[in-house]
Amino acid sequence: MRDAIIVGGGIAGMPAAWRLRHSDIIALEAGNRIGGRLRSERRGKYWLNWGGHVFGGEGSYADKLLKEVGVDALDLPGSFSALSFKGKTLNGGNVNLYPFKLPLSWGTRWEIVKAGLKVMKAVKAYGRVNKPRKGEDYRVRQQRIYDFMADKTFAEFTGPLSPDADAFFRPTVSRSSGDPEEISAGAGVGYFLLVWDKGAGLARNIVGGAATLPQAIGDKLGDKLKMGAEVLQVVQHNDHVEVTWRQDGKEHTEKARYCVMTTPATITHRVTKGLDPVVYDALGKIKYGHYVSAAFLTNETGRHAWDDVYAYCTPQRSFNIAFNMSNLVRSMEGGERAPGSSFMVFSPATLARNLINLPDEKVLEIYRKDLEEVFPGFGNIVVEQSVQKFHDGLAYCFPGRNKVQPMLMRAPNRIYLAGDYLGSWYTETAIQTGLLAGEDINSKLYTDKLLPDNGFSY
Ligand SMILES: Cc1cc2nc3c(=O)[nH]c(=O)nc-3n(C[C@H](O)[C@H](O)[C@H](O)COP(=O)(O)OP(=O)(O)OC[C@H]3O[C@@H](n4cnc5c(N)ncnc54)[C@H](O)[C@@H]3O)c2cc1C
Asked: Is 45 within a domain?
């Protein structure tokens, strides 16, 4: 019997395996690459990116893991608040003045200011709720965040808005993968804190691309990591877990003392048997939205306006945000600017629903048309492009999600849950829950060995 089996090779699974690497473990990944929804590929000094890309800074779990594994990440120098809307691009200065710099009617500006003041007040309150309190358990903080404005949607909170006023709020909120009509008011407000205050959350890029971190761990796991191993069933018994997977067309079953399930909640719900029924039920209540994204490599020469910008918000387009993934490379250049850049655009929620069933070529055609309008001449500098579609893009926080959390936080028996859907901080939650599951199992394995009749042989 193995000490533990880790299911899933994303950024929750790899930290769990990293913590348990000195024990008798295997990590099973269904796909042919490590990283899950962290998906990046190097291209010379740049990297193309299709999935998660910004990480927690100093003192975060991401920071701790990066340092342990020996992978570099740096704070992003560029602006997060550029806006391309109504034929104009704004970058810098007070974002509250943006509505007055765009060709909008006074009625629309008044709507934006009124709703904006409401959101600003709520962001201040969210900031207080979000702040860690001395000595408190992380689960208490997480529950407080989920409880914040949890009984209505963001759209109900702002009230009805005209399309141009709505455009100031929708792209930011729907980055959650849910539309303002779907996500809780508190979660929507939380997104504005992320955008308005870089220091409040995720603002770092991994040098070489996001997937560098899980891949580095995967490399160190050696033959403890099994690729192309799709887990079909995980059964929890009193004193062990039984895991069945398919690899190269063959089915395998192994027993382990513990298992860490790091697959999205939908998959964990489908494959696990024998979980506490309350936890099992809670897994079934997690809601995901789609994401469609595309990466572009370009070959322009000389400085460009986007060099100092990381994120452009692009309302009323097929994607709602465009990222300059070469922003970090620019800041690391000592002398001359190298030719080229790397861009990512993404479409969550309804935008993704409109694209996810179209052929990739059609999605690229739609994206290229919009990119040409945002960055005139873009069409002439693209040298590589490709699309990714994520059906379970991200779990979004819906009204009532707070009531599901205590069920998910029940003490585990033999099956541990880890993954981004367990909290509010995406990669940070994934890494945290993976590391903590690994640490807890390590200490259980240690105490198990001290007990008589434990089945361990020395
Ligand atoms: C376009 C996009 C942009 C994003 N931007 C950011 C960002 O900037 N910052 C941020 O913090 N987060 C961001 N996120 C979210 C972030 O990517 C996720 O929160 C994080 O990667 C989730 O990691 P995970 O390990 O929990 O899940 P996953 O990455 O989904 O990992 C689960 C793994 O399990 C594997 N698996 C599935 N089924 C099985 C099975 N049956 N057997 C074995 N293995 C299986 C999958 O192949 C996958 O590798 C973004 C996501 C997307 C899609």
From this structure: no
Task: Give yes or no: residues 164 and 235 share one domain.
Answer: no
**Complex-level ipTM:** 0.99
168 is in an annotated binding site: no
Ligand 1 site residues (CB inside 6 A) read 7-13, 28-31, 36-38, 51-54, 202, 230-231, 262-264, 267, 271, 291, 293, 346, 390, 393-394, 419-420, 426-427, 430
Residue nearest to atom 46 of ligand 1 (CA): 36
Was 29 annotated as part of a binding site?
Answer: yes
- Residue 346 alpha carbon, nearest atom of ligand 1: 1
Number of domains in the chain: 3
Judging by beta carbons within 10 Å of its beta carbon (0-12, 13-18, 19+), is residue 359 exposed, middle or buried? exposed
Q: How far is the CA of 84 from the CAs of 14, 174, 320, 383, in angstroms?
A: 37, 17, 10, 23
Q: How far apart are CA 161 and CA 121, in angstroms?
A: 18
Mind listing the pLDDT tens digit of every residue in the chain (458 residues)? Answer: 999 999 999 999 999 999 999 999 999 999 999 999 999 999 999 999 999 999 999 999 999 999 999 999 999 888 888 999 999 999 988 888 999 999 999 999 999 999 999 999 999 999 999 999 999 999 999 999 999 999 999 999 999 999 999 999 999 999 989 999 999 999 999 988 877 665 556 789 999 999 999 999 999 999 999 999 999 999 999 999 999 999 999 999 999 999 999 999 999 999 999 999 999 999 999 999 999 999 999 999 999 989 999 999 999 999 999 999 999 999 888 889 999 999 999 999 999 999 999 999 999 999 999 999 999 999 999 999 999 999 999 999 999 999 999 999 999 999 999 999 999 999 999 999 999 999 999 999 998 887 766 665 54
**Which of the listed residues 247, 263, 325 should we mutate to test ligand 1's pocket, taking the one with most ligand atoms within 8 A of CB?**
263
Same-domain check for residues 387 and 309: yes
Please say whether the beta carbons of 109 and 101 come within 8 A.
no
For atom 11 of ligand 1, the residue with the nearest CA is 427
pTM of the model: 0.96
Domain extent, residue 217, equals: 2-38+50-72+207-287+398-450
181 and 32 in one domain?
Answer: no
Sign of the dihedral defined by the CA atoms of residues 225, 230, 236, 241, in that order: negative
**Is there a domain that residue 161 lies in?**
yes
- In a 13 Å sphere around the CA of 98, the CA atoms on its Cβ side amount to 22
